[in-house]
Design brief:
Helix content is 30%, strand content 11%. The chain has 614 residues and is of the alpha/beta class. The protein binds one DNA strand of 7 nucleotides through α8.
Length: 614
DNA sequence: AAAAAAG
């Protein structure tokens, strides 16, 4: 690697002006041997792992050819979705519009790849190698459901359409990731899907490709009702945070470039007027956060009656206590077509069983898919836990940051993401880091949307290579080059921990995750120790002792969420207690009639091999 | 108890 991207941006980051990484003043620095130590022997703070900084996600290499002529598989289980609107020609529309350009708007689309191409030269071949596909070998995969469509090995095996294939090439995706290999054929076949797969493994594309492809193929036949100032999207993608919705929107725009499929994003904290204007210009795929969407629905500026595809990203979060009522309102109490008419896809890295049960309401004869994390479990993330008293956390963090700089992680522009539990705590820690000379910023729900987006940009660019965050940044955000995730405050839920550390070690790259554990985190001891064990991490002896204590002390154990979801999970329909009998398969009675074969459960691995999934 | 998501 002669000229890495990191090198190429280094000047701008450690540049001549204010952004020189200042040496923190030593006045507040307490050397380790002068600090309070817990009675139990915690490992010394060694930042020995010289982990590579994350590279770009995109992969370079030969382009994939597209194969035309094969038509999509029959749309099993769907009753067509004309919904009373006849098929009719669409003016100037659709897939044969080789000139690209939106067929329902006069504006020209900005080339979303322009930036990439402009910076292309900054990447040499190695740096540009993108997704580390070796890390994807031997990943345990579990599928469950009736007549699960088989996986593919290349994008060319699926008829996604010429324009989408070209965009896939532009994104330099050489071959599908495991979740894409399985999820795309399932979606193309028209099946509902509940998928567990870590975000860094290509989940967004896994639900975007079938949606874009499906819409593009039918766009010219779809007649939407004409209601002034009401938009009728064909697909809805919901996510739990504004930044994640933005990210999905950006991705979806790349994938749909010159397909004639229009993507619009709507989220709170931003001017609604511009979003309304965008919607009026026409929308095929709406990406949104729940609150703003409810607002738009109540104003009747959006109708869901033409929704053909519904995707919930971070679906378990979307269905947890805070979000469930809003999601039910959107999905069940407005004008969205019911399961079986629309196609529904739920994605998350974690899927607790009770959430799966709730989610089943939204699905019809669905396929359950669990794909191991890149490198199966988290071999690519080195997890460390250190016992740190509350009063020692700040100086301990400073130790880590110092060590990191000495190991060159800063010089390579490795980013450090520090999670805290509260918004107040985020402000306080950001301030403390700044006055101690560390270039930090913060993101949390009490900051304005403008501040949030600025903070994220500044972090991503390496301008402020330390970001203090609440759980607003825990899920889904794809920030290349995050070399280190610090759980300054551990979350109470092991699933949140899984999502947080998943901000590093993405796209097959290595990452480091450090957690500060103390007596406030007792309830996490057992699940954390188990998780680390399962992902082949070294579990400190003191943590094992805490874990053992937690199991009889009460208070432990419950955190497992009923046998829960680790890196993936298990279809709750297989868990034996079918309190609702065969109801979950009931949708198949009519819909699956075309399938003259009995249900078969395709399982890629025997139960002995999938222990990580239990 | 906290965080997120509408204004």
């Amino acid at each position: 690697m002669k000229t890495s991207w990191a090198d190429s941006v280094e000047n701008s980051v450690v540049g001549p002006d204010k952004n020189v990484l200042p040496r923190p003043s030593r006045s507040t620095y307490v050397p380790p041997h002068l600090r309070n130590r817990p009675p139990s022997s915690e490992p010394p703070v060694t930042s020995n792992s010289s982990l590579p900084a994350n590279d770009r996600v995109n992969a370079g290499g030969p382009a994939v050819g597209s194969r035309w002529g094969s038509s999509a598989k029959p749309d099993i289980g769907r009753q067509g979705y004309g919904q009373g609107y006849g098929y009719s020609g669409r003016t100037g529309g659709g897939r044969n519009n080789r000139n690209g350009g939106w067929d329902h708007g006069m504006e020209r689309q900005v080339n979303p790849f322009a930036d990439d191409e402009a910076t292309e030269d900054a990447f040499n071949e190695q740096e540009n190698s993108g997704i580390n596909f070796d890390a994807y070998e031997d990943i345990p995969v579990e599928t469950n459901g009736e007549n699960v469509p088989p996986p593919v090995n290349t994008f060319a095996e699926i008829d996604l359409g010429e324009e989408l294939n070209q965009n896939i090439r532009r994104c330099k995706y050489v071959k599908p990731t495991p979740v894409q290999r399985y999820a795309i054929p399932i979606s193309i076949a028209g099946r509902d899907l509940m998928a567990c797969a870590q975000t860094g493994s290509g989940k967004t594309a896994a639900f975007c490709f079938p949606i874009i492809s499906g819409i593009q193929k039918e766009l010219q036949y779809i007649q939407r009702p004409r209601v002034a100032r009401t938009a009728f999207p064909l697909a809805l993608i919901l996510s739990p945070t504004r930044e994640l919705s933005c990210q999905i929107h950006d991705e979806a725009k790349k994938f749909s470039y010159q397909t004639g499929v229009k993507v619009v994003v709507a989220y709170g904290g931003a001017q609604i007027s511009q979003q309304l204007r965008e919607l009026e210009r026409g929308v095929d795929i709406l990406v949104a956060t729940p609150g703003r969407l409810v607002d738009l629905l109540e104003r009747a500026r959006v109708s869901l009656q033409m929704i053909r595809y519904l995707a919930l990203d971070e679906a378990d979060r979307m269905l947890d206590m805070g979000f469930e009522p809003q999601i039910r309102k959107i999905v069940e109490q407005m004008d969205m077509p019911p399961p079986g008419i629309r196609q529904t896809m739920l994605f998350s890295a974690t899927f607790p069983r009770e959430i799966q049960r709730l989610a089943a309401d939204f699905l019809s004869n669905y396929v359950f898919l669990a794909v191991g994390r890149v490198g199966s479990s988290t071999d690519l993330i080195v997890q460390r836990v250190e016992y740190v008293l509350e009063s020692d956390k700040r100086s301990h963090l400073m130790d880590l940051l110092h060590a990191q700089r000495e190991n060159g992680l800063y010089d390579k522009q490795g980013l450090t993401l520090v999670f805290v539990e509260t918004k107040k705590g985020a402000d306080a820690l950001e301030h403390w880091l700044c006055i101690n000379g560390f270039p930090a910023t913060s993101i949390h729900g009490d900051r304005t949307q403008q501040e949030r987006e600025l903070a994220l940009r500044s972090f991503k660019s390496g301008n402020t290579p330390i970001l203090v965050a609440t759980d607003v940044a825990a899920r889904g955000l794809d920030i290349p080059r995050v070399a280190h995730v610090v759980n300054f405050d551990l979350p109470n839920d092991i699933d949140d921990y899984v999502h947080r550390i998943g901000r590093t070690g993405r796209a097959g790259k290595m990452g480091l995750a450090t957690a500060f554990f103390n007596d406030n985190n007792l309830s996490l001891a057992k699940p954390l120790a188990e998780l680390m064990q399962e992902s082949n991490q070294e579990v400190p002896a003191w943590l094992t002792r805490y874990a053992a204590k937690a199991s009889f002390g009460g208070g432990g154990g419950r955190n497992r969420k009923a046998g829960g979801a680790r890196f993936g999970g298990r279809d709750f329909r297989r868990e034996g207690s079918f309190t609702k009998g065969t109801e979950y398969y009931g949708g198949a009675a009519g819909a699956g009639a075309g399938y003259g074969v009995p249900a078969s459960y395709a399982t890629a691995y025997g139960s002995g091999v999938t222990s990580a999934w239990d």
